[in-house]
Amino acid sequence: MRLVVDSPAVQHVEQTWPEFRRDPRHLRFGLASDGVSPYGVKSSSHSIWPVVLTNYNVPPWLASKKGFLLLALIIPGPKKVKNIDIYLEPLVEELQQLWDGVDDVYDGRVLLWTMHDYPGYAQVSGFQTSGYAACPTCGPALPVARSSHLSKQVYMSYSTYLPMDDPLRGTGTERNNVAPPIPLNMNWWEHVIAQIKQRWRDVEEGHIPVERARLKRWSILHRLPYWKDLMIQHLLDPMHIEANVTKSLIKRIFGEKDGNPARRACEEFGVHPEAWIQVSDGGIESLPPAPWILTTEERKICKKRISEIRFPTDLRDAICDLSALIRWVCSKMIRIVEIDEK
């Protein structure tokens, strides 16, 4: 796929509503929103939420350029909003009017999807993305348990989501033969909302009992007449997710997250018995080597592999200078002469 209009999601829109396909000048939008710090100051306690519309009618190399992005609104902050639907309501009303048709306006408009990271997904869609209902696709089938030693939820049976013939499912008696859960679609959630409205007739868009539906609210985007029929409603930004997962994985294999709470959690759930805390005859506790932590020799090999990666000269020098600066700032003693030199 080279163009957004060639994607199955856009083709689905054009096949479902043929009248929208007849005129190529009809506008196709994507909505993006995320919290940012003003003036690029990452340590600022004030965050704002810009809501931007991306126009996919222009060539793909121009769609993300500054001159072609439409700033629909700015949520001032200073903290993350609890209900973003209040701010999105004027925008949704205009999109609904343009879809239904407005006098003297010849171009129709459709909102194809929203784009955000995983926390922003919860903010815009109304689903929960943490705690006992962290996966809207799995719904109640999500295997989750509370760890008293880690003081957070732990998601179990991760091999369940692998293909049935995957070797990582294990072998013999330790093999996980549980089939992956069937992904839930929007029709299932609409059925849940219908049940809630039948019991609580005053429940409309807004707050919904979490213990019943595992929803924070029913998003205002469902006011759009075509929203429930879209193939894809929310897109996740892979850049943030991959960076966070990679960072967490590196910390895990290098032992930064290892300690007594993690080992006691393994014993609590009966996994990795070789990593449980050992107690000597004198009552002294010790942590045996964990199978997921790299040894000293393995760390040297990993460091060597990374050093063999060839970056552009400017990028490599910038990374080295940044690493040296971080080590210098984090040192226990800083001399005034060194500050003047920097």
Quaternary: single chain
Report the principal-axis shape. Answer: globular
Order of helices and strands: HHEEHEHEHEEHHEHHEEHHH
Got a strand count?
A: 9
Q: List low-pLDDT spans.
A: none
What structural class should be given to the helix and strand makeup?
alpha/beta
Identify the strand order in the major beta sheet. 3-2-1-4-7
pLDDT average, as an integer? 78
Radius of gyration: 25 Å
InterPro entries: Transposase_21
Pfam families: Transposase_21 (PF02992)
Quick structural gist:
This protein is of the alpha/beta class and about 350 residues long.
Compile the SSE list and pairings:
Layout: H1 8-16, H2 18-21, E1 27-33, E2 49-55, H3 60-63, E3 69-75, H4 85-100, E4 109-116, H5 118-125, E5 144-147, E6 152-155, H6 186-199, H7 210-213, E7 234-236, H8 238-253, H9 260-269, E8 278-279, E9 285-286, H10 296-307, H11 313-329, H12 336-341
Parallel strand pairs: 1-4, 4-7
Antiparallel strand pairs: 1-2, 2-3, 5-6, 8-9
Pfam family, one: Transposase_21
Plain-language structure description:
The protein starts with 7 loop residues before the first helix and ends with a helix. The mean pLDDT is 78. The protein has a 5-stranded mixed beta sheet. Helix content is 35%, strand content 13%. A hairpin with a 5-residue loop joins strand 8 and strand 9 (285-286). The chain has 342 residues and is an alpha/beta fold. Among the domains are: 4-126 and 219-236, no CATH class; 310-342.
Search tags:
alpha/beta; 35% helix; 342 residues; 5-stranded mixed beta sheet
